[in-house]
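1st attempt posting a full record on here, be nice pls
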Amino acid sequence: MKLIRHSEWADTKLTLHLLSQILGKIKLGLAPQEPQWAHVTLPLTVNGFSTGPLWSGETLFEVDIDVAAGIITVHVESNRTMFPLEDGKSLKTYYSEIIGTLQASGVRLELNPKTQEMRELRYLDRDEAPLAYDADAAQKGVRLFQYAAREQVAFLAPLRCRKVKPALFWGTFDVSSMIVYGKSEPFPEDKLIEKAAFDEHMIEFGFWLGDDSVDVPMFFILPYPFQYTELDSERLQPTDAYYDAKMSECFLSLEKAGRSSDVRAFFRTSFELLSEQLGWEGCAHYFLSLDMPPQPKQEPTDERL
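the predicted structure (as C-alpha cells):
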C-alpha cells in the first residue's frame, strides 16, 4: 500500500471530490431515504466509485467514475455513454456531460447545484475554472479508500449489530461505516444534515485523506452523542492511537498503522472505550462467533506503505 499525502495530490483530490458531489446529488434526489444518510453514500468499485444502480421511474441507470481508465461512464438501461477524465476540464463541463446525458435519456432530476460540506462553495453547473487531473495520483488516492473500506469490512462484517457498511461520503470525502445502537438522541441544533446524521447513538469508523492542515491520511472514530471529555487513551491500540477530547474523536495516522492488525486493534479498542463511555449494554453479544464454516484466510502478503 503506497501512502500519498494531501500535498502530493491536492488538486486532483479536489477534482474527485467535486465529481463525487455530482454523483452524490443524483443519489440524494432519487435513492430511497435511509437513516444516517446511508442512502446517499457512493459505493467504491474496483477502479473508483459509482452511484450504484438507481431508478428514475421505470428507467434503471448508473454513473461510474473509473480513475484507472480515466473515464466517466453513464449507463442508462443497455446504453452506455463515456466521457474522459481530463486535466483542465471544468466542473461545469463534467456536470453538463453527466446530467445532460441522463436527462436526454429520460432520467428526471431536480438537483441543487451548490456543493455541500465543502469549505469553498462552488456551483456544479456553472463553475468554469479548469480542474486538475493526474491519473496516477487519482489511482493512489482511490486505492487508499479501498484499503480503508477493506479494513472496516473485516472488523464490522462478523459483528451481530446494526451497521452501515463502508462507503464514500461525498460531502466530507471520506470512507466511513457505523455501528448504530438504536437509542434515540435527537441532534440539539436545527441543522438539516446533522439532524438526520445524528439522531441515534452511534459510533462511526472512518478514513480521511487529509487537508492543508493535516497532510497525512487518518483513521478516525467518532461517537455520538459527542464526548468532549478526557478519556483513557492508554487503552487504545496501537500505541500511536489517541483520543482528542476537543474533537470527540479517536485518531490513528496511516503512517502509524503499518499492518491490518494495527487498524483492527484500533477499531476494537476504540469501540470498547467509546461504547462504555456511552453506556451501551449488551455489546459482548456483538462479538460472538458466527456459526458458519471457516473461510480460508485472505490476508495480503505485503502491507508496507
